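Supplementary Methods S3. Complex input for the beta-D-fructofuranose-bound model.
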Amino acid sequence: MNFDPSTLTVHPYAPHHRPELHFAPEKNWINDPNGLIFMNGQYHLFFQHNPFGTDWGHMSWGHAVSRDLLHWKELPVALPEDDEAMIFSGCCVLDFQNTSGLGTLEHPPLIALYTAHHDQTGLQTQNLAYSLDEGQNWAKYGVVLDEGIRDFRDPKVFWHESTQRWIMAVVLAEHRQVALYASLDLKSWEKQSTFGPAGHTGGIWEVPELLELQDDAGQSHWVVKVDLNPGGPQGGSGCQYFVGQFDGQTFTPTQKARWLDYGKDFYAAITFANLEGRTVWLAWMNNWQYARTHTTGQYSGNMSLPRELYLLNTSEGLVLAQTPIRELDGLWEPIEVPSETQLRAVQHKDLLALKKAVLDLHVQMNSTDQSVYGLVLHCAGQLEWALEFDHLNHTLTLTRQGTVDEEGFQGQHTAPMVSMGVQDVRLILDHSSLEVFVDGGKLVFTEMFFPQEGESRLSVYARSGNVSVHVLHARTPPLV
Ligand code: FRU
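Predicted complex, serialized as structure tokens:
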């Protein structure tokens, strides 16, 4: 990696930036979530981790567990780098039929498939490791897929019921392609097809996933999600998806690519394996544009909130919607907020004030045509961000301001706005993170911000037109 450490902006370690419900490591660097899996009542989160410092390097798999997807306990490093290779991104599956022969039918092995990045040669191979005690201890089995190439990484594997085979999606990063492989035993893999270049190709492709989802009419579809860096919607890294069909060998898109998130900080999402009845994923809440030059001192990076995925029929075709997981409901206590606030141009009214920037807010904003209005957050008197609905130009813009002045951090991040009626907005703040779900999660913004310590004030403003704000809920953790 070409990287000049003299450009590192180390922010003083600020305990008030540490999120309460988003996973952040005790110390040191993290990036992509890896090996997400649900087993015996526990969610496992493995993650790209440098156990020795706050910058990228010595890549290994860290490990954390949770029973509710919101409170995480960090465990010792699961898969450390070794003399030959760093442990890059990958996935876990429960080999429930013991196809690998590495466990038994009674005690199926937990299998990790990850990319070994060979330090001397730069070559990347797909390797297997297994655990017989739910991820506490691991044995490295070795290379299972080697094409003798670089930029071949990030395997995500699932059991394909109709062909009774394991299917792996893995990227040929520089080629902007997702390659699909199949296997009967997780140890020997046969290439089936490639997908791409397609959609957004302004950067290398990373962290792919092929998954099946039912739409809201009960019809099944396949989705390829793949990230790119750079070339994201707001500069730096970003992620896109394609809806289509999969016949057991080949993925064929039926729609054009769409962005998954219009904010700057949602990368490398993967879903939890072995989860029945719902599809949940989370991502690294960062952007490669500034991830390595910005650290909060003791640790660097956190994950997004886990989100449930839905495929919805809309006037624009099928849209992948994301909503915060239901485990969040009822977790915090309601706070006093006027249930209706009316504004006309040019007015500005405070909605609520908080001792700490932690909030779960659900509002509906109703306006006359041609209105331009928004929500704005000030922390310790400083404007951190504003979210502006523009019914004139059909856009939604998140302006991130704050005090962090690195390249790419401050700016206006705009998305096309489809729904022009009442705007349904769920907004979650967790000290240094903002996640906005508009119109039932069809439009999402994920961004970090690093406020000064002090009171946070959320206000609503109207530039033109009349606006009414109806609060459906406002919750925050009790102050201890
Ligand atoms: C994505 C990525 C992956 C790689 C890992 C290395 O953020 O670049 O492609 O496996 O991070 O840490």
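Residues 332-476 form a domain with the Jelly Rolls fold (CATH 2.60.120.560). The pocket of beta-D-fructofuranose is lined by residues 31-32, 48, 59, 88-89, 115, 153-154, 206-207, 268 (CB under 6 Å).
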